[in-house]
Amino acid sequence: MIKSLLKKTKRQNKSREEERLLKRLDPARLPVHVAIIMDGNGRWAQARGLPRALGHRTGVETLRNIVKLCLELRIKILTVFAFSTENWKRPQEEIKILMDLLCEYIQKELNDLHRKHIQIRAIGHIFELPPRAQKELARAQEVTSQNNELILNIALNYGGRLEIVDAARNLALRVKNGELDPAEINEFIFKKYLYTADLPDPDLLIRPAGELRISNFLLWQMAYTEFWSTPVFWPDFRPAHFLQALISFQHRKRRFGGL
Fold first, then answer.
1. Which of 87, 100, 166, 236 is catalytic?
2. Where does residue 43 rank: exposed (0-12), middle (13-18), buried (19+ CB within 10 A)?
3. Which of 6, 95, 157, 189 could cross-link 124 (Cys pair, CB 3.0–4.6 Å)?
4. Which of 13, 26, 39, 147 is catalytic?
């Protein structure tokens, strides 16, 4: 798989750095599930004297390239943090731009994503998004629901604490209705009530823009996730950075609390 990808990179005139990094990858030790906090769009634009909207638009292009690379590497799940429950505090104009970009991305990319057998999912309080965004997300999920090459899991109006509260509320309702004995509740049962119930936990979290926190993202699921951070803002994040993160991951010793 890596050899065929190397041939493809040469045909596509990819950078020598990408080619060098691909040679270092062990295809048997790639993560199954990668999570990314797509951070730094606004700061990237402001540092260049540009509108924040241009930073978000450039960030969409970065996502397109990383999705393509995940597909080529046969990584099965990519979860991206696109809009948090805290992001509603931003100016209304910026929120509208973000929602319009979401709709535009789906409209432009859906046919290609479907053709490549990519399944689109959305986690979070989707029902609180603008109606147009809800409609486009529902359409994308329905069209791609049977695809199995890559799951593109988009966290929108998402908060890790909110997810845990939702799970606890649904469990409590089952207990109240006499459908579940509280003594039966354990981690395995609890996981079934998370938004990611049928997905394995992320193996790797990538955090651009130099921040060293998880920002209320997948709090339950990140218990044993490996972290990789870079000062590079998301619009400048390249496939080479993604490959660097994978190589770093492959050098970690994952003991999960054991020896």
1. 87
2. middle
3. 157
4. 39
pLDDT digit string, tens, across residues 6-35: 555 454 556 889 999 999 999 999 999 999
Global pTM exceeds 0.85: yes
SS3 of 181, please? Answer: coil
Alpha helix (H) ranges present in the chain?
2-11, 16-24, 41-47, 52-73, 92-115, 131-144, 160-176, 187-191, 239-250
87 is catalytic: yes
Domain ranges in the chain are 33-159+203-234
Q: Per residue in 177-233, pLDDT tens?
A: 999 999 999 999 999 999 999 999 999 999 999 999 999 999 999 999 999 999 999
CATH class of 33-159+203-234: alpha beta
Cβ within 8 Å of residue 49, ≥6 positions away: none
The number of beta carbons lying within 10 Å of the beta carbon of residue 112 is 12
Per-residue pLDDT at 7: 55
- Is residue 229 within 8 Å of 207, Cβ to Cβ? yes
Verify whether residue 186 is a known catalytic residue: no
Give 63-92 pLDDT, tens digit per residue: 999 999 999 999 999 999 999 999 999 999
The distance from CA 68 to its chain's CA centroid, rounded to whole angstroms, is: 13
